[in-house]
Design a protein that fits this description.
Layout (H helix, E strand, L loop, with lengths): L9 H11 L7 H7 L4 E5 L2 E4 L4 E3 L3 H4 L8 H13 L12 H13 L4 E7 L2 H18 L7 E5 L8 H6 L3 H4 L9 E4 L4 H4 L5 H19 L4 E6 L15 H12 L2 E4 L14 H5 L5 E4 L11 E6 H10 L13 H16 L2 H18 L7 E7 L2 E6 L15 H11 L5 E3 L2 E4 L7 H24 L4
Parallel strand pairs: 5-6, 5-7, 7-8
Antiparallel strand pairs: 1-2, 2-3, 4-10, 9-10, 11-12, 12-14, 13-14
The chain binds pyridoxal-5'-phosphate (PLP).
Length: 462
């Protein structure tokens, strides 16, 4: 215990929190009433709160602690780098050893046609960078009117002005006058929620063709790029039907539109490949990355850029007037490098693909037998269940029941972090999770569902 605040009890911590800490993505009124859950330490796949409860972290923090908690090698890497060179920038033609080593390492993992990396401090900053790069690219190519970027309803690309604008979260757009001009959204490939009577395969084609419709509406010569997550994460782990990405690939090639695959969640092993683009055969021009790149031990993000775009920047010359004080931060870079080493040495990507991914998915499917569950789906180490009132017709509960939040709170109280996206419950556990821990996760998820059902029965909702 090195900080005074760590010696305080839960009530005192919550009082300070209430008085001084303005939280991200929280309802401040109910937070003040309930008090924040204080997380005080973590190890492996578990976190502990200030009352001593051990909780299995089914969300890997926020989709990021891929190697799990408590990896001393990353702490050592940070310490060594702080002593050697705690900070220097890469503006104005400077660089330093950790950032060049990290760029080389990431380029080696990325698809063959992507060899350059721009660094940022987060996923949101990465998408701000992408927006400017896309438009700068078409300017350099003499087609500045190719300006509009097409995103998707319910997509998540971060919380900065550009990130939230590229994303398709209505609740975010409502605050702050978003989206900014030059951004258009099309429907998502969400079969369970929006597929109606179509088969998933037919719906996948239909959802992809929304892109073609938008391109023709806006005009091929005005559309710069399409941005999407290979698997939509914060929107509810929307796994696209198998027909979706091949059809998107065809459309992008036909109209010469740049592809931005937002890999902030899918990147660094979550799908059982290094990147979600490799899992789905997507050919991106840009891959925004963050989260798993440092396993959350340090804030860092980046954009992996295709040779086509990087070559245009090089050939045409002139400054790209964009960068962050902490672009390529040496300590973050050293931690990211060590994180990639750990992922490789533990063969975590292969472990997800061949062992723990299939194991988790087969167990997760058993949740579909629960009376509240309309669908269980997933890929690698990311998965979702849909809570419904009636399975056969995929009928939802009324919105004011707030079933997702009820289920989430009951789950956390009983030792498992599940996240609620509306009525969709999602997980994205650390890649190091073992079989026993998966069994525990499934047992606790089932318990949360049972408790949710009892709660609804007590309330007379079912
Ligand atoms: C989390 C997330 C972001 C934003 O990253 P931050 O580091 O929170 O800014 C962007 N895109 C996707 C797909 C994400 O999941």
């Amino acid at each position: 215990m090195t900080h005074a605040a760590q010696n305080l009890d839960t009530r005192s911590l919550q009082a300070i929190d209430n008085a001084h800490y303005l939280h991200p993505f929280s309802d401040h009124k109910s937070l003040r009433e309930k008090g924040a859950r204080m997380i005080v330490r973590a190890e492996g796949v578990y976190i502990w709160d200030s009352d001593g409860n051990r909780i299995l972290d089914g969300m890997a923090g926020l989709w990021c602690t891929n190697i799990g908690y408590g990896e001393k090698r990353l702490a050592d890497a940070a310490y060594r780098q702080m002593m050697e060179l705690p900070y220097y920038n890469s503006f104005f033609q400077c660089a330093h050893p950790p950032v060049v080593a990290l760029a080389k390492e990431i380029a080696a993992l990325a698809p063959d046609h992507m060899n350059q990396v721009f660094f940022t401090g987060s996923g949101s900053e990465s998408n701000d960078t992408v927006l400017r790069m896309v438009r700068h690219y078409w300017s350099l190519k003499g087609q500045p009117e190719k300006f509009t970027i097409i995103g998707r309803h319910n997509g998540y690309h971060g919380s900065t002005v550009a990130g939230a604008s590229l994303g398709g979260m209505k609740a975010m757009h409502k605050q702050g006058g978003l989206p900014i001009p030059g951004i258009h959204h099309i429907p998502q490939p969400y079969w369970f929620g929006e597929g109606g009577d179509l088969s998933p395969e037919d719906f996948g084609i239909k959802a992809a063709q929304e892109l073609e419709k938008a391109i023709l509406d806006i005009g091929e010569d005005k559309v710069a790029a399409f941005i999407a997550e290979p698997i939509q994460g914060a929107g509810g782990v929307v796994i696209p039907p198998s027909t979706y990405w091949p059809e998107i690939n065809r459309i992008l090639a036909k109209y010469d539109i740049l592809m931005i695959a937002d890999e902030v969640i899918c990147g660094f092993g979550r799908t059982g490949e290094w990147f979600g683009s490799q899992y789905y055969g997507i050919k991106p021009d840009f891959m925004p990355i963050a989260k798993g790149m440092t396993s959350g031990y340090m804030p860092m993000g980046g954009v992996i850029v295709s040779d086509r775009v990087a070559n245009a920047f090089e050939e045409e010359g002139g400054d790209f007037n964009h960068g962050y004080t902490y672009s390529g931060h040496p300590v973050a870079a050293a931690v990211a490098l060590e994180n990639l080493k750990v992922i490789k040495e533990k063969n975590l990507v292969q472990y997800v693909k061949e062992d723990i991914g299939p194991y988790l998915q087969s167990k997760w499917q058993t949740l579909a037998e629960h009376p509240l569950v309309g669908e269980a789906r997933g890929v690698g180490l990311v998965a979702a269940i849909e809570l419904v009132k009636d399975k056969a017709t995929r009928t939802r509960f009324d919105e004011d029941v707030g079933i997702g939040v009820i289920c989430r709170d009951l789950s956390v109280e009983n030792g498992l972090v599940l996240r609620a996206c509306g009525d969709t419950m999602i997980i994205s556990p650390p890649l190091v999770i073992n079989h026993e821990e998966v069994d525990e996760l499934i047992e606790k998820a089932w318990l949360a569902l049972d408790l949710t059902l009892s709660h609804l029965q007590a309330q007379g909702v079912v």
